[in-house]
Amino acid sequence: MVRILSVVNKMTRKISLETYFYVLPALFFLFSFLLYPTLHTFYLSLLNQDSSSFVGLSNYLYLFTHRETFLVFRNSLLWLTLFTVTVVGMGLFLAVLSDRLPYEPVIKSVIFVPMAVSFTAAAVIWRFVYLYRPEGFLQIGLVNALLAYVGGSPIAWLVDLKVNNFALIAAGIWMWTGFGMVVISAGLKGIPNEVLEAARVDGAKEWQLFWHIILPMLGPVLVVVVLTLMINALKVFDLVYVMTFGNHDTDVIANRMFKEMFTFGNFGRASAIAVILFLSIVPVIILNIRRFRREERV
Known about the structure:
The chain is mainly alpha-helical. Helices cover 74% and strands 0% of the residues. The protein has one domain (40-297): MetI-like fold (Orthogonal Bundle), CATH 1.10.3720.10. The chain has helices spanning 2-44, 58-65, 67-98, 104-112, 119-129, 142-149, 164-189, 193-201, 206-217, 219-234, 238-243, 253-263, 267-297.
């Protein structure tokens, strides 16, 4: 018995050493490229513009007390709500609708195509779509050309403060709707037909079927889509950078961080914005981790 225990202890020690041998490189890269940059960014956020002196929370106070940075947070919140809700709603609608169409794969492929386009290319495309010329001139931008065709007046979509943020969000919705549709459609395919047929036999109408059976069973899938879209809405950068560069009150958190760092050369404020962006995403990540653990237990 003693010999057996000694052999087991040796094997356990060997396994532990092998485990550390394989894990240590991963821990090294995790510390070098994730933990250390995060801590160093937080440290820089407490320093002044050129990181030469300690200023405490002054950078954070500036971000939350000035109008231009207040607009940044307002726009990011607008992206977070309007972008997420619209993409989920349209993705759900298209997934349910295309599920009954004869040429489902073709239709889904067409709707999913924008996801294959880079964000920069999509931004350039939508700049041409929103192209504006004064009234009386030939409109070559698609949206204004349609407005002129029906007798309306052209709109400077990327300059007009009343519509420019919504125009940018529309471009984001165009790109991400295919993602929402495909993921939700996969969840829809996983619903057993026996459940749906049983409900129909019991006299449930299609709307009741959708509201009381399909939607609850799609709950976990919808959570995945919502969390993914929320993270992407908070860190949206490419579309805003290429289409407006954040001008005309369209700035968002990620673009403002870029401008503070590379345009204004203010490392302290840029780091403070990075910390705020990180902290705003942490709750979404925690929710995602809890969801994964809940699914593993089930």
